[in-house]
UniProtKB/TrEMBL annotation:
One GO molecular-function entry: hydrolase activity
AB hydrolase-1 domain boundaries: 19-246
Pfam family, any one: Abhydrolase_1
The protein, known as: Alpha/beta hydrolase
Lineage summary: Bacteria, Pseudomonadati, Pseudomonadota, Betaproteobacteria, Burkholderiales
Superkingdom field: Bacteria
Coiled-coil ranges from the UniProt annotation: none
Keyword annotations from UniProtKB, A to Z: Hydrolase
Length: 262
């Protein structure tokens, strides 16, 4: 496993085969994908920490983060790696980035595997996400409170009862974000606009949990209806942190999805 710094992004690149770009969500990192690596052995895996997240600093130009800037960063990363075509896997906020990337660069994205997928935050959710951005600027103590709230609200009852290590991993992932980077990431998500889903014309897998309050099955089903030929999988006993909470099931679904492409 090799970490490189490319365009000021910390990126893990390993494996051989077709390129697979893995885009984490809010409060995540390249480690969002570690639990499902067994399903990805046939790919050249490219796992960046998004600008302002985990080990990647905020952009040096001082301009605020946005979904568009995340897409710009992914386009630039693919360019510097000289990648013409790529499969894309994404989680949560990263799924919005992935959808916009596929539409901005038609012919570049070969497939989409989207976990806890969102078209955009609901109008009801936007104010609370914006409020979280403000709270995050309170520093380390505030980030701890946010992390604890996410562990409580975004994992399933079964995960809370049976998988304490997953709770610790989610908490650590959020607590290790820089307060300003996380705040700007929240603001970017709060302002996110939906992509034109009907225009997506690549094989698409949608995976969510039956207890995912961020990407509830009913909302993801609407996405499935709008994306021609897409497949929806709802995991039992799973919240929003799909690859952490149900890694074996996610691995199985990915293996089946990628096998069907060849």
């Amino acid at each position: 496993m090799t970490t490189q710094v490319l365009n000021d992004l910390s990126v893990e690149i390993d494996g051989d085969g077709e390129a697979l770009l893995c885009i984490h969500g809010l409060g995540g990192s390249s480690n969002a994908w570690t639990p499902v690596l067994p399903a990805l052995g046939g790919f050249r895996r490219i796992r960046p920490d998004l600008p302002g997240s985990a080990r990647s600093p905020l952009p040096a130009d001082g301009k605020a983060l946005s979904i568009e800037r995340y897409v710009d960063a992914m386009v630039s990363l693919l360019s510097v790696l000289d990648i013409g075509k790529v499969h894309v896997m994404a989680h949560s906020m990263g799924t919005i980035v992935a959808q916009h990337l596929a539409l901005r660069r038609p012919g570049t994205v070969r497939s989409l595997a989207l976990f806890g997928p969102l078209a955009a935050p609901s109008d009801a959710a936007r104010p609370s996400i914006a409020a979280r951005a403000h709270a995050a600027r309170g520093g380390a103590a505030a980030m701890q409170e946010i992390a604890d709230a996410i562990v409580k609200g975004a994992t399933s009852a079964q995960t809370k009862e049976l998988q304490p290590a997953v709770l610790a991993l989610v908490r650590e992932s959020v607590m290790r974000q820089s307060p300003e980077g996380y705040a700007q990431s929240c603001a970017a998500l709060a302002d996110a606009q939906p992509a034109a889903l009907e225009r997506l014309d690549v094989p698409t897998l949608l995976v969510t949990g039956d207890q995912d309050g961020v990407a509830p099955p009913a909302s993801v089903r609407v996405m499935q209806e709008r994306i021609a030929g897409s497949r929806l999988v709802v995991l039992d006993g799973c919240g929003h942190w799909t690859t952490f909470e149900q890694p074996q099931r996610c691995t199985q679904e990915l293996e089946a999805f990628y096998a069907a492409l060849h």
